[in-house]
Amino acid sequence: MKYKIIKNFLSDDKNKELLKRTLDIKGWKDSTIINTTSNYRKSKVIYHLDNDIIVLFEQKIKELYKDVLSELDMKDFDISKIEMQMTSSNNGDFFKVHPDADYKRGRGDVKNRKLTFVYYYFTDPKPFTGGNLKIYEFSDDSRTTHNSLEFDTVVPENNMLIFFESDYWHEVEEVICEPSLENSRFTINSWIQ
User: Can you give the pTM of this predicted structure?
Assistant: First the structure.
């Protein structure tokens, strides 16, 4: 499995500004997923980000993604769409093993996702434990299942971004913290087509 981590992705000022704006948001919604399994995901999300936040990330991603594709040994492609959402993971929140793309059975945008990124940010000092990202090896060359015994664990750091192929199976381990928004593990999640 291959992934690319970029630390200090935003300037300190932009990172702090994003956190301040995030803490002021009032419209958090319960996360959803199309899945028949209950208790599969728990977090809060903002599906529609302010345009300046989208532009901030899109500009940086468009500057970097060709080099990232090369480092991940991915086939080159021109970006046709970038989806983005903001997630707050607080006490007891998690997301079980899943891919962000399903090229064989996926519907709509999920079928066309190629590259995922997750940008982490939160208050300092880190107010939570857990919330690690586990990225799994595939069980075989079909890439349709994961090997639950072969994985890397990525510990979130403030102002860190990770890229990986959208069909990689991954999960978010349970977050443990004092329940309040300011103690959350925040992310900007994006899927590039």
Answer: 0.95
